[in-house]
Amino acid sequence: MSDPRASSVVILGSGAAGLITAYTLLQDGFTNVTVITRDSTPGGVWADERIYPGLTINNVHGEFRFCALQMPPARDPNGRLSGSEMRDYMQKFTATYLQDIILYGLEILQVLRSNGEGDPGWTIKVQVVKTGEQKALKFDRVVLCTGGCSRPLVPKELSPSAAKATSFKGRVFHSSTFRSQSNHLEAGNNESMLGDVAVIGGGKSAQDAAAYLARKGIKVTMVFETVDAFFAVSRPLPDFIRRSRFLSLLSPHSTLDSRLERFLHTTSLGSNITHFIWKKIIAGSFAAAGVTDHSPLKNTHDAFWGIRINDEGILKPDGFHKLVNAGKIKVVAPARVASYSSDGLVLNNGEKVRADTVVLATGYTSSWHPIFDETTSANLGLNRHPPDPNILKAENEWNNYVSLQSPPHTHPSHEQWASSVYRGIVPANNLLNKDFAINGAVFTTNNGYAFEVMAHWISSYFLGDKNLKLPSSPEEALAHADRNSAWLRKRYPGTLLWANESYSSNLAFWTWPQTIDELLKDMGLATYRSGGNWLTWPFKVIELTEIEHLKEERDAMRKLG
Ligand SMILES: Cc1cc2nc3c(=O)[nH]c(=O)nc-3n(C[C@H](O)[C@H](O)[C@H](O)COP(=O)(O)OP(=O)(O)OC[C@H]3O[C@@H](n4cnc5c(N)ncnc54)[C@H](O)[C@@H]3O)c2cc1C
Ligand SMILES: NC(=O)c1ccc[n+]([C@@H]2O[C@H](COP(=O)([O-])OP(=O)(O)OC[C@H]3O[C@@H](n4cnc5c(N)ncnc54)[C@H](OP(=O)(O)O)[C@@H]3O)[C@@H](O)[C@H]2O)c1
Q1: Phi and psi angles of residue 106, each rounded to the nearest 5 degrees, phi first
Q2: For residue 494, which ligand has an atom nearest its CA?
Q3: Are 28 and 161 in contact (CB under 8 A)?
Q4: Which atom of ligand 1 is nearest to the CA of 42?
Q5: Cβ pair 506, 424 in contact under 8 A
Q6: Can you tell me which atom of ligand 1 is nearest the CA of 52?
């Protein structure tokens, strides 16, 4: 391929990651960019067909905003954008910048090299959702943006066919279809007769579904073993706490670049301060939510050691936690659902829950599995792999992290977790081909900022920018991914087995600013962009404007050679 800008690039998926990648490539002069999605509107989880009543954005930095387009302020006094505001933003971004490049209504069936291994070019086999017609489309490069929340995870014993086999006559649906179910309810037609509802799961989808149904006056019972942790406050926290590096510094990163981080994580005093603040944050959240020691909502995932936490801000009076406190949502916990019975669910403790309708808020599985055959997956280097025993020793490298002493107990398979994706963006084996990248598989709390920087990194990679620092070989890239995996096993013992691989090639949760700085550094660009002096930098508000001229900065670097 001579001029990379003339090559054809396909972006798989039209969620936030796909949209910003398409935009960035177009801005960089790529002339042949196509986005493919099964959806009929843009936005991925924020697409019109996915958003449901009561859905709001759920993170500290929040906005999923891109530099090129302002986002109107949220109407919610809590400052949270609703699902429909997010949908409108994604639609406006698409209408403004991505007219005519998105092919909607195409289910991606398979992604494979056109002429076998070693030859350039990719074939994307698709099926037209409306007609079932199948086609093969050819492109020079692929960016995989199919996300971690587009393919429902339905445990076998809870599937609709398992329900049928046990003569359960009620309705069973996954939370991913909650929009269409709520449409029926809103329309008040016959299909809206759900009866008593059981919601399975303790994640955010389960909480949203249960709260919505309870607000409609429907009798809801929720079953979960552990519920998501949450941040809640009685009064809004100032931006210099909520939207600065403050929280990211209270979380150790694989490298501790600042003196403050080294103090907080490698000294006993610093570690005590770190854990004290975390405990205060969590205790304050329970207090703000009115969650008492006897409440089932006390049984949350660990906020420090994991990533299963929702930033709720000021809790709504008719939100999930308040509805549970008021007895309007019944909770059966800790328990797991084992199977169906003719009139509801059977739990692992032998108890039964009566239900006419069952909502499977049981999460999502990898969107990658169905579209890559084993050979393509292995040749690319997409698959997880058992850790290299030599790299395993790397875990000792972080033995001086006092804040990581006394981790929670983990499942033995946790030790086998290792991603093969360099920086969470390029499958290591394919590093030198420069024809395949991933956006959206790095789990962060600021998707707008992170996906945009990753899009620039991907564009530099495709363009072959000399100033983009890359490993010199696939082996070196894999060793890097292995080392990062060793770090993640140490840092997130409670979480790695939960997050499916299509959104966890890297986890940059609290520490997303440090991780993004690494990508900026790879591109030879300035880091610590929110500024401040030696005293104020941890509290400087991180603004998207910091990265609004990345294209020009990269152009200038390229000119310098
Ligand atoms: C209801 C809900 C709310 C969420 N809210 C938040 C939040 O507030 N904050 C947060 O940080 N995270 C949230 N998440 C997690 C969320 O998945 C990601 O943060 C975000 O959507 C990632 O964007 P993405 O572009 O990577 O993926 P997505 O938005 O999931 O987009 C993936 C795209 O790929 C397409 N696709 C996938 N497979 C195929 C296929 N085989 N064929 C054709 N098209 C395909 C999808 O249709 C979609 O267009 C939420 C998840 C859910 C389910
Ligand atoms: N913006 C928002 O408000 C919003 C809304 C929805 C989702 N999201 C995000 O989307 C992602 C996915 O969330 P999600 O809630 O759909 O999935 P999830 O977080 O993976 O939760 C799935 C839940 O189902 C439970 N479960 C599975 N099998 C079960 C069984 N047999 N019995 C009882 N419980 C069972 C799981 O428990 P175990 O883990 O114990 O197995 C878990 O609590 C998360 O990142 C979430 O934050 C955000």
Answers
A1: -120, 115
A2: 2
A3: no
A4: 49
A5: yes
A6: 1
**Mutation test residue for ligand 1: of 48, 150, 454, 505, the one with most atoms within 8 Å of CB:** 150
Find where tokens 């207090």 sit: 287
Q: Determine contact, residues 229/300, Cβ cutoff 8 Å.
A: yes
Q: For 256-297, what is each residue's pLDDT tens digit?
A: 999 999 999 999 999 999 999 999 999 999 999 999 999 999
Which residues neighbour 308 within 8 Å (Cβ) at sequence distance 6 or greater?
Answer: 203, 228, 229, 301, 494, 495, 498
0.90 exceeded by pTM: yes
Q: Which ligand is nearest to the CA of 151?
A: 1
Q: Which of 454, 417, 419 is nearest to 438 (CA)?
A: 454
Q: How do strand 32-36 and strand 329-332 relate by DSSP bridges?
A: unpaired
Give the angle subtended at the CA of 452 by the CAs of 446 and 458, to the nearest 5°: 130
Report which bound ligand comes closest to the CA of 62. 1
Longest dimension (CA), the chain: 71
550 alpha carbon – ligand 1 mean position (Å): 25
Q: Which tens digit of pLDDT belongs to each residue from 392-433?
A: 666 678 999 999 999 998 888 888 899 999 999 999 999 999
Residue 248 Cα to ligand 2 midpoint, Å, equals: 24
- Contact residues of ligand 1, CB 6 A cut-off: 13-18, 37-39, 44-45, 55, 57-59, 107-108, 145-150, 205, 367, 371, 440, 447
The answer to whether the bond into 334 is cis (omega within 30° of 0) is yes
Q: At what angle do helices 259-266 and 268-289 cross, to 10 degrees?
A: 80
Task: Decide: 111 and 372 in contact? Cβ < 8 Å.
Answer: yes
CA distance 27 to 29: 5
Q: How many angstroms is it from 144 CA to the middle of ligand 1?
A: 12
302 alpha carbon – ligand 2 mean position (Å): 15
Output the DSSP codes for 142-154.
EEE---SSSEE--
Half-sphere CA count of 61, side-chain side, radius 13 A: 25
Question: Hey, whose CA ends up nearest to atom 15 of ligand 1?
Answer: 149
Task: Please tell me the distance between residue 130's alpha carbon and the centre of ligand 1 in angstroms.
Answer: 22
Which structure tokens are listed for 444?
A: 């962060």
